[in-house]
Design brief:
Helix content: 40-55%
Order of helices and strands: HHEEEEE
Number of helices: 2
Structural class: alpha+beta
Strand order of the largest sheet: 1-2-5
Number of strands: 5
Radius of gyration: 24 Å
Largest sheet: 3 strands, antiparallel
Amino acid sequence: MEIFKSQKGSFSLGSIIFLAVIGTAIYAGIMLGIPWIKFYEVEQLFKDQAIRLKVASEEEVKGAIKAKLAAIEVPLTIDDVQIIREEGKPAVIEGTYKVDVDFAGVYKYTYLFKPRGAAPKSGGLN
């Protein structure tokens, strides 16, 4: 009886399973990570534009927000963006949107993001 030895360069079943698990983890990480990266971009955009409200009109700020949201492909419409200005408090820009992450038709996960950006306090000069 002859025992079959694996040849150099061949893969064992364990190696193939290991590579499949690693590949799946990388795929899932990328699919779940992209919406988070965009969320942080939107939060930074809101913060920057809240600061800009001191020298620009709300229409200019909304136009800049709308253009950037379209550029980064975030499913947040300008109608869902609120600009909050209260006397004695820093300006705040906030919104809410959902992102569906579809894993090749097998599993679907929905994120609910609530980005918020506020101008820093400036010693009462708002």
